[in-house]
Design a protein that fits this description.
The chain is mainly alpha-helical. The protein has a single domain (2-199), classed as Up-down Bundle (Rhomboid-like fold). The protein is built from 11 helices and 2 strands. It has a two-stranded antiparallel ribbon. The protein is globular and about 50 Å long.
Length: 202
């Protein structure tokens, strides 16, 4: 249920900002504005807006399928606290995914970022941790989730160093890392489950 609320709010705000450049500019991630104008809300608000329709639709499509799975698993694992932990997973992914770029661009007036990709990456990698042999489609090509995860991390790390395509590969990478680390902190036994699923050990 919470996943659908996040999806709905993000979609509404993103569509609103498409026709409101002032709202778009007020919500986007800007390390310079955070540091020099104390606009701390930008650490989170940027995930509510997207660059264009394809950017929005892809993120919301992935969130729709993987988010509801993770929300249900968290409720099963943590009972009444599951919903809160799911919200913190998403919000933590939003924040953690941009900390690297924040430090890197503190004095760069022209740097900006938008989109929920970092948080969505956190959701997807939580899925990979919990269901490493589940199927994920990459351009309609099915593969085990763990294979997708490895390829995604390698690609994101490489492209983050290369840069130049206006895609937040660094946010994708660090959001993914958070998506694995956070559930393990909440429930360390997930590590055993992960390896047992992959190798039949533990």
């Amino acid at each position: 249920m919470v996943n659908y609320i996040i999806l709905g709010i993000t979609t509404i705000v993103s569509i609103w900002a498409f026709s409101r450049p002032d709202i778009f500019d007020w919500l986007k991630f800007s390390p310079y504005a955070i540091k020099h104008s104390r606009q701390g809300w930008r650490f989170f608000s940027y995930a509510l807006i997207h660059a264009n329709w394809p950017h929005l639709l892809i993120n919301m499509f992935v969130l729709f399928f993987f988010g509801r799975f993770i929300e249900n698993v968290f409720v099963q694992l943590f009972g009444g606290k599951g919903i809160l932990f799911f919200i913190l997973l998403y919000a933590g992914g939003v924040l953690f995914s941009v900390l690297f770029e924040y430090r890197k661009n503190l004095n760069n007036y022209y740097y900006g970022a938008v989109g929920a990709s970092g948080a969505v990456s956190a959701i997807v990698f939580s899925y990979i941790l919990i269901n490493p042999l589940g199927t994920i489609y990459l351009y309609f090509l099915p593969m085990p989730a763990i294979v997708f995860g490895i390829l995604y991390l390698i690609y994101s790390a490489y492209m983050a160093k290369k840069a130049g395509d206006n895609v937040g590969h660094s946010a994708h990478f660090w959001g993914s890392v958070f998506g694995v680390a956070y559930p393990l902190i909440l429930e360390p036994r997930l590590a055993g489950h992960f390896f047992s699923t992959l190798f039949g050990v533990f």
